[in-house]
Amino acid sequence: LCRDKNIKLIGIDFENFGLDAKLQDIVKGKLKPSQRDLENIKDILKKREEHHLKIIKKYINLSKKPIIILVGAWHLRKNSLLMKSLNNFKAIYPCDLRNRLLIRPIKNKKFVRYCEYIKNDKENKN
Q: Three-state SS across the chain?
């Protein structure tokens, strides 16, 4: 579709999310993590967020047009690096009936809806 519509598509994540085979098995629930594994995962998550932000800022500065960024809902947590660092955007995210961000699957899909959050520093400064 992107080729047909001449839409530029850029990947922003690490290959395999930056996880080696062992860490992938831990994330899939096949292995129990050690404390060191948990620390490695935490470090990789931080590096991924920093990398995402770097690539997003690069392309925001290269384009005069708005850009669309697709990330997992986990990256849209209120205190995430992306949410704190980026300005002037609209985020559309899965939420529950109380408008709370969903970062895990829930059993009853009828309680999932989509919410939006708009951050516009120009408006917030006035």
A: CCCCCCCCCCCCCCHHHHCCHHHHHHHCCCCCCCHHHHHHHHHHHHHHHHHHHHHHHHHHHHCCCCCCCCCCHHHHCCCCHHHHHCCCEEEEEEECCCCCECCCCCCCHHHCEEEEEEECHHHHHC
